[in-house]
Write a structure and sequence with these properties.
The complex is a heterotrimer of chains A (219), B (184) and C (286).
Chain A: H1 25-50, H2 56-82, H3 88-91, H4 97-106, H5 115-140, H6 147-174, H7 178-198, H8 214-217
Helix pairs in contact in A: 1-2, 2-6, 4-7, 5-6, 5-7
Chain B: E1 2-6, H1 17-31, E2 38-44, E3 52-57, E4 60-65, E5 70-71, E6 74-78, H2 80-98, H3 113-129, H4 136-146, H5 151-161, H6 168-180
Parallel strand pairs in B: 1-2, 2-4
Antiparallel strand pairs in B: 3-4, 5-6
Helix pairs in contact in B: 1-2, 2-3, 3-4, 3-5, 3-6, 4-5, 5-6
Chain C: H1 21-25, H2 54-82, E1 84-85, E2 89-90, E3 93-96, H3 98-125, H4 137-140, H5 147-176, H6 179-206, H7 211-228, E4 234-235, E5 242-243, H8 246-251, H9 256-285
Parallel strand pairs in C: 1-3, 4-5
Antiparallel strand pairs in C: 2-3
The chains are: A mainly alpha (219), B alpha/beta (184), C mainly alpha (286).
């Protein structure tokens, strides 16, 4: 650093961030509101399930993960006013009735012998769907204008990936018989159908449209 | 060998005299007390506390509060596993005291807390090798509390737990050694 | 899944056995115990290393803490689920602020961590999980349908008791030279101070315009505090096994007067227990 007055490029050569992003402020706010809604439903049910699950290791993991998703909801709650939504509750909503139906089905199991169904719903269906939606958002939003959302998404995705792995491993350790395997498959299929009808956690277009051309893909 | 249980029937706890007698007889035989020894197990059923002592050697008298034989998960009911631990420990103490080679140990009530925990480690270690369920870590915790949470104490505990043919002097030496190595 | 989960349905594996507290209280052997502190009969008394049974008493208390942490986790988790977010009571369903739920979720994590710590401490102390019976009076305080009363019962009464118990165990670890116990209890104590502050803050915020509700909540706390004094097990007498941790309670926001009241409640609980024991004695011995 021979001369501190010598002008440097404001974006370093290795910083490839660009302005373009596919989400407007309004669209970003809409999605963030849906994210907050689903994170709330997830942390609430994980908390509720703690008392219903007899397996001690699962009970403790649910308690830990409950907070992860509450924190995600809090991050989205705080992001909403920054996206010009001064009443965060207005956009804290599901994208459609189909997602409400999915959540109702996912949160239904209560009995102590339904741990497999509980874990399947949260960890094989919902969390992978969240990872997909968040990854799509992360990869398509403006890396400069929407940096705060990107920062939150990056933290959240770290949690989601690690929680998904925990859940999947708990499930693999719980499934010991053909019957239990079938229960997991059946419950997953039931929930996946409902989630398919919803179009994902942010409704149709949650992860774009793979059959549209570039221009239309994210419309 | 005669084993007597007092009282002959229990009214405050749901213990079975015959079950205690059978367990005591089994332990006496396994531990190898003299064939002509008569053993009395006296249970104070008026207290849920759990103290247990050897109060006499001739005849052998074991005095226990009912909590010593009680299942910690089922109030007033006997726990066969825990009872074997307590009775077995006391009967090993009796065997040691009756063995002239063991040496002269103070009466139960006169043992210091470190001495008592050291001797218990030695007794329960042998009981475990007879095939009874014993809690090694629990005894280690007792020993550490009475000596120190130190490597020297743990090593002394290991020697007591795995020991056989030890004398009272050996036990006192291990206990004193662990105490002397206490961290400042 | 239902809103409000009954205590009898709490899920446990086969290691755990539940014993109602009444079964302990009505144990006929209690009739023969003199009042705590009496010299005529040996009583358990304060937990210090000098007690011949101290290591086992500490193990039993630690197991009680462990199952208490499970119930505290379950209680906080249920508060996340049982109430809707809102500013009032929509169609009879009690509502709570979003931030309150976030605090309860945070508490879930803390209590889950306390369970993990307690399990490691149980290993350290040579205690098997489920070795001692469980009673569920802690969770019962977490079942109140009014969120303000629930928060008061759990975060001020239950977590307040946790402060007293953790401080007792921390002191025991310190006196016994047990660095692991002292370290763990100190960390858990820090969390509990936070939880009590949380409960006090929410009680104040939620009842700022509803003094009747605040009064009901404080009355409920008095009832729960008396229950949690366990007939004088927790109190300020010289022989109370668990003593009020006034310094840490102060950090958590309890006023001096509140702690004096709690000490009085504990004395009442002790007197009532002694009266109960006397009645049992007459019933058993005639």
């Amino acid at each position: 650093m021979a001369d501190s007055k010598k002008p440097r490029a404001p974006f370093a050569p290795w910083d490839r961030r660009e302005i373009p992003g596919i989400f407007s402020v309004e669209e970003s706010a809409r999605r963030v509101g849906h994210y907050k809604w689903i994170e709330m439903r997830l942390f609430e049910v994980l908390g509720g399930w703690v008392a219903t699950v007899p397996e001690l290791d699962v009970k403790l993991r649910l308690g830990t993960h409950c907070y992860h998703h509450a924190w995600h909801a809090e991050l989205w709650h705080k992001r909403l006013p920054e996206l010009r939504e001064m009443n965060p509750e207005r956009l804290t909503a599901p994208p459609n009735d189909e997602l409400v139906a999915f959540v109702e089905a996912m949160t239904e199991p209560e009995a102590a012998d339904l741990t497999i169904e509980k874990i399947v719903g949260a960890y094989r269906v919902l969390i992978p769907a969240k990872i997909a939606a968040y990854t799509y958002h992360l990869n398509n939003t403006s890396t400069i204008t929407d940096a705060p959302t990107i920062r939150s998404l990056s933290f959240i995705l770290q949690d989601e990936m690690s929680d998904w792995r925990d859940g999947e491993m708990m499930l693999q350790s719980l499934i010991e018989t053909e019957d239990e395997l079938q229960r997991a498959i059946d419950h997953q299929a039931k929930l996946q159908r409902l989630l398919l009808a919803a179009g994902g956690i942010a409704g149709p277009g949650t992860i774009g449209d793979s059959y549209a051309n570039d221009q239309e893909a994210h419309a | 060998m005669a084993v007597e249980i007092r009282p002959e029937t229990f009214s405050l706890v749901l213990f079975d005299v015959e079950e205690i007698r059978a367990l005591t007889e089994q332990l006496v035989a396994q531990i190898g007390l003299p064939r002509d020894a008569s053993v009395t197990v006296e249970v104070d059923e008026t207290t849920p506390l759990g103290y247990a002592h050897v109060t006499s050697l001739s005849p052998v008298m074991l005095s226990l509060e009912s909590g010593a034989l009680e299942d910690p998960k089922r109030p007033r009911q006997m726990d066969p596993v825990g009872s074997a631990d307590v009775l077995g420990r006391l009967l090993f103490e009796v065997r040691d005291r009756l063995d002239p080679a063991f040496g002269e140990a103070p009466a139960s009530g006169d043992l210091t807390l470190p001495e008592a925990s050291a001797w218990q480690a030695y007794c329960v270690g042998r009981l475990g090798r007879l095939g009874h369920h014993v809690q090694r870590q629990r005894r280690l915790y007792h020993f550490r509390n009475r000596h120190a949470f130190s490597d020297a104490a743990d090593a002394a505990f290991d020697r007591l737990w795995n020991g056989d043919g030890l004398t009272w002097a050996d036990i006192v030496a291990e206990s004193n050694g662990a105490l002397a190595a206490q961290p400042a | 899944m239902r809103k409000s989960f009954p205590v009898e349905d709490l899920a446990r594996d086969a290691r755990f056995v539940r014993v109602p507290i009444m079964e302990r209280i009505t144990d006929p052997r209690n009739a023969f115990q003199e009042q705590a502190g009496s010299s005529s009969r040996r009583a358990a008394g304060r937990l210090t290393p000098e007690r011949p049974d101290a290591p086992d008493a500490a193990r039993a208390l630690m197991h009680g803490i462990f199952v208490g942490e499970i119930q505290a986790l379950e209680g906080a988790g249920r508060t996340c689920w049982d109430f809707e977010v809102g500013a009032g009571d929509e169609e009879g369903v009690p509502e709570v602020p979003f931030e309150l739920k976030l605090d309860m979720a945070r508490q879930c994590w803390d209590e889950a961590r306390h369970c993990e710590i307690s399990i490691k401490l149980s290993d350290h102390m040579g205690t098997e999980l489920g070795e001692f019976s469980e009673n569920t009076f802690l969770y019962e305080a977490a079942c109140n349908p009014d969120p303000v009363l629930r928060l008061t019962g759990v975060n001020r009464a239950l977590e307040g008791l946790a402060i007293d118990v953790f401080n007792t165990m921390r002191e025991f670890g310190e006196l016994a030279g047990d660095p692991i116990l002292e370290f763990c209890e100190d960390w858990m104590l820090a969390d509990e101070v936070t939880h009590v502050k949380m409960g006090s803050d929410w009680l104040r915020r939620l009842t700022v315009n509803d003094k009747d509700r605040q009064k009901r909540a404080l009355e409920f706390q008095r009832v729960v505090d008396k229950l949690f004094s366990l007939g004088g097990f927790r109190g300020e007498e010289e022989d109370s096994p668990v003593r009020l941790a006034r310094r840490f309670r102060e950090l958590a926001g309890f006023k001096e007067a509140e702690m004096d009241t709690l000490a009085e409640v504990a004395r009442e609980a002790r007197s009532e227990m002694e009266a109960q024991v006397a009645r049992n004695k007459i019933a058993v011995t005639g």
